[in-house]
Amino acid sequence: MSAELPPPYTALTKHPMLARTNHDESARFNFLTHLNRYLSGTLGPGNKLAYERRVLPAFREEHGRDPEHRYEIRDWMNEDPFHRMWSALKRNSMEMRQQNGRSTVLRQLDELDAQARQFNEHSGQLELDPKIEQPIYQTAVDIHCQPGGYHGEERPGDVSAGANYDVGIFATTGGALGGLNDGGGQAVVAWAKKERPDWQPRRILDVGCTVGHNAVPIAAAYPEAEVIAIDTAGPSLRYGAARAAGLGVKNIKFVQASGEDLSRYPDGHFDWVQTTMFLHELSAESMPRLLAECNRVLAPGGLILHVEQPQYSPEMPLFEQFMRDWDAFNNNEPFWSAMHGKDLKDVMAGAGFAKADQFVVGVRAVVDRSIFPAAESEEQEDYGRAAVWNAYGAWKPVAKEMAA
Predict the structure, then answer these.
(1) Taking the alpha carbons of 316, 332, 229, 125 in that order, is the dihedral positive or negative?
(2) Cα–Cα distance between 153 and 42 in angstroms, integer?
(3) What distances in angstroms separate CA 143 from CA 73, 118, 247, 331, one per listed residue?
């Protein structure tokens, strides 16, 4: 297999809850996987050429200066024919991915719902709360172009949203997250094991878990720990709990709750509080509340870790900021731009995590290299499409009287 090609869709691990694809559905996902890799790796650099050769000279001629912020670049790049073509292809690839995933799930929704009910009734790993309201920042738009977002139901009590997410994320990421789409969670585990080999957290909280792709690897790596994965989206939780049970991971529970209100848990209850690609889904008002709650429930000596794309800093070129902003305007990510424009260290400090205790570390998806060789060769900058992230974290200090 060429390292330049993504793995075939058949490389996905066929766990019990994964929707089964027929020949045509698999072929469509294979096409979309290759298309996404082609748009990022082959066509993507054309945006910089368009900017340097056409857009920037024209901007300088009209304004007598360089652009001062990423929004000026966006206004001008949106008039460039190459960028318009590339952007339209990327948006259409996401819409096609959602259409194929949704049609795949809906034709077998009866079986998927029945399977999920069977797993969840016997495992005891699901706790739903119908009183939990969906936050406005999740209901305002269909996040990632998924019809109904992650909380929408085709019918009451179904798993359609979670099943669609799971069956199609392989194509969205170009197959870079591994056979269980859990390369992000595996990356976090690898970092934690290397950072503190003897650490054995007793209780772990994953906030904004969706279907548990990133929480399940953590639970499997720390089998003695009690892992709680929370989300507000019932359909995603139903699917995620059944998926974990089908994979044989028993020390994780999926709970319908909001990270802005963790009052069900006492102060210092968790040794590790985790989010993965979730902070950018939050509004400016909700993120400080969520981080403050994470701080409250984190035990002294415990770890807070947020896996995200890099924040926009003065050192990051404006063109790169513009390219990383694409999802905010074209992939139904309304809070992406504002969140990444903040100094996350300042935001975390405001929630009670002193800057002296904070750190930032790079993490890369951990996958089976014999099946996913391309994940190791993605060295070219693709402005956030590769399975490489920054982890913003802090170890909560132990009080002096406790350390004595």
Answers:
(1) negative
(2) 37
(3) 25, 29, 27, 7
Q: What is the CATH number of domain 1-397?
A: 3.40.50.150
Are 92 and 35 contacting, i.e. CB atoms less than 8 angstroms apart? no
Alpha-carbon gap, residue 378 to 259, rounded angstroms: 34
Strand pairing category for 358-364 and 388-395 = antiparallel
Q: Specify the DSSP class assigned to residue 305.
A: E
- Whole-angstrom Cα distance, residue 123 to residue 1? 40
Alpha helices in 231-315 (DSSP H): 234-246, 286-297
> One digit per residue, pLDDT tens: the chain, 404 residues?
344 677 899 989 999 999 999 999 999 999 999 999 899 889 999 999 999 999 999 999 999 999 999 999 999 999 999 999 999 999 999 999 999 999 999 999 999 999 999 999 999 999 999 999 998 888 888 988 898 999 999 999 999 999 999 999 999 888 888 899 998 999 999 999 999 999 999 999 999 999 999 999 999 999 999 999 999 999 999 999 999 999 999 999 999 999 999 999 999 999 999 999 999 899 889 999 999 999 999 999 999 999 998 899 999 999 999 999 999 999 999 888 988 889 999 999 999 999 999 999 888 777 666 666 554 434 445 565 555 678 899 999 997 544 44
CA 311 to chain centre: 15
Distances (CA, A) of 55 to 47, 61, 160: 10, 10, 43
